[in-house]
Write a structure and sequence with these properties.
Strand 1, helix 2 and strand 2 form a beta-alpha-beta unit. About 5% of the residues are buried. With about 100 residues, the protein is mainly alpha-helical. It starts with a helix and ends in a 6-residue tail after the last helix. The protein has a two-stranded parallel sheet.
């Protein structure tokens, strides 16, 4: 049975919500950057901030853009690229300090 785009959208949103991934974010033990916007019509700012707050304090980083939509990589690609570049350097530096001999 073929589903309409709206039915597929509603179904995918329900599936994502059922995963309850926020409950597992505290398990992440690597540096994690959350990038969002206050004008996203797909992920509202409250959801973005709640996900950020659920991450371990010593591994989380946040970047919020104001006035942009959901496609930050298209709307402000250089700014997002800069954030990802700085975050990669930070994560690389942190990894260099970890004893991997265990």
């Amino acid at each position: 049975m073929a589903r309409t785009p709206i039915e597929r959208y509603v179904g995918s949103r329900r599936s994502i919500a059922a995963l309850r991934l926020r409950d597992r974010l505290e398990e992440i033990q690597v540096p994690t950057v959350v990038i969002g916007t206050d004008n996203d019509t797909i992920l509202d700012i409250d959801t973005i901030l709640a996900d950020y707050m659920a991450l371990p304090h010593d591994h989380r980083h946040l970047q919020v853009y104001h006035g942009c939509g959901h496609s930050l990589h298209i709307e402000v690609p250089r700014r997002v690229g800069g954030v990802l570049g700085r975050f990669s350097e930070l994560a690389w530096d942190l990894d260099a300090k970890v004893d991997h001999s265990r």
